[in-house]
């Protein structure tokens, strides 16, 4: 599953070709949480429509159902029990991690929050950096 931290950098010279190839092989998967976060970054109606089309027709999707919402909520509580401020990860990251867990997928990201969620919760997913932290 792809996170917006990667999707937003798809045009980066170090990522563009590799992401395009992975997309052609249908190795990238999206969900509603990714779409909501990605569309937030649109600067105008035209860009919003273009992004919406790419996200809804450009890659396979997996469902974010009620069980995913419950997993995300449980995970946030789990992290809060580990450390006083650890639960303060972006809500979308909890949803994407829970969706990946539910569907047996990894998360491709450029965001330390997924490492923290994977390390300190009962969710099982591969937290995979698209590039070395700090390199993009």
In brief, what are we looking at here?
The chain has 136 residues and is mainly α. Helix content is 54%, strand content 4%.
Total helix count? 7
Strand content: under 5%
Sheet with the most strands? 2 strands, parallel
Mean pLDDT across the residues is 90
Describe this structure in words.
With 136 residues, this protein is mainly alpha-helical. It has a single domain (4-129), classed as 3-Layer(aba) Sandwich (Rossmann fold), CATH 3.40.50. The protein contains 7 helices and 2 strands; from the N terminus they run ααααααβαβ. The chain has helices at 4-7, 16-24, 32-40, 45-57, 66-82, 91-103, 112-120; strands spanning 107-109, 127-129. It has a two-stranded parallel ribbon with strand order 1-2. α7 links the parallel β1 (107-109) and β2. α3 runs antiparallel to α4 and α5 (66-82) packs across α6. The longest helix is centred in the middle third of the chain and has 17 residues, at 66-82. The radius of gyration is 15 Å and the shape is globular. 33% of the residues are buried. The mean pLDDT is 90.
């Amino acid at each position: 599953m792809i996170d917006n931290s990667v999707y937003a950098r798809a045009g980066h010279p170090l990522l563009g070709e590799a992401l395009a190839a992975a997309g052609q092989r249908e190795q990238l998967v999206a969900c509603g949480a990714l779409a909501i976060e990605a569309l937030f970054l649109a600067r105008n109606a035209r860009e919003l429509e273009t992004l919406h089309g790419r996200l809804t027709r450009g890659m396979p999707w997996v469902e974010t159902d009620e069980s995913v919402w419950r997993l995300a909520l449980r995970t946030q509580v789990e992290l809060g029990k580990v450390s006083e401020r650890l639960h303060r990860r972006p809500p979308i990251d909890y949803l994407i991690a829970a969706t990946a867990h539910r569907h047996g997928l990894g998360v491709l990201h450029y965001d330390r929050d997924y490492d923290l969620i994977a390390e300190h919760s009962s969710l099982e997913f591969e937290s995979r950096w698209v590039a070395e932290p700090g390199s993009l």
